[in-house]
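Q: Hi! Curious about what Glutathione peroxidase looks like structurally. Here's the sequence.
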Amino acid sequence: MSIYDFEVTTIRGEKTTLAPYQGQVLLIVNTATKCGFAPQFKGLQKLHDTYRDKGFAVLGFPSSQFLDQELHDNADIAQSCELNHGVSFPLYAKIDVNGSGAHPLFQYLSSEARGLLGSKAIKWNFTKFLVDRNGRVLKRFAPTDTPEMIESRIAELLDPAAV
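A: Let's find out. The predicted structure is below.
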């Protein structure tokens, strides 16, 4: 199965797949609006704005699995992200990222790019997965890896000749 085949639900409740992103570099992030890492929304938005015309997108997947740090309603999540953090990159419906109820996309991502000591489990909010233009999951970044720390890797994938 390709990453583009996974069914996802937008923050507004529409069922879709990731097929519209085929051929783009993606940064897929599990987010939480009440998390201490929430200031990263601004950096993620800056990456999205800077590189979207070059074939890049940030995709946000809210989750409440870590100390219930996400709002309960998808509409409230969307409003908080937009008003408090200036988010306009695509957001999806709240999901689980770990355990038996983990969304299949995150089961796939965490098996393709394992964490510390080969762990599949996602340890906290704002874990980031970098996907190349061919749909290959290249790397998992820790919550402490800021968008600014990842930017050079994204730029390299978008224009390998420039590096």
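A: A fun detail: Residues 40-51 form the longest helix (12 residues).
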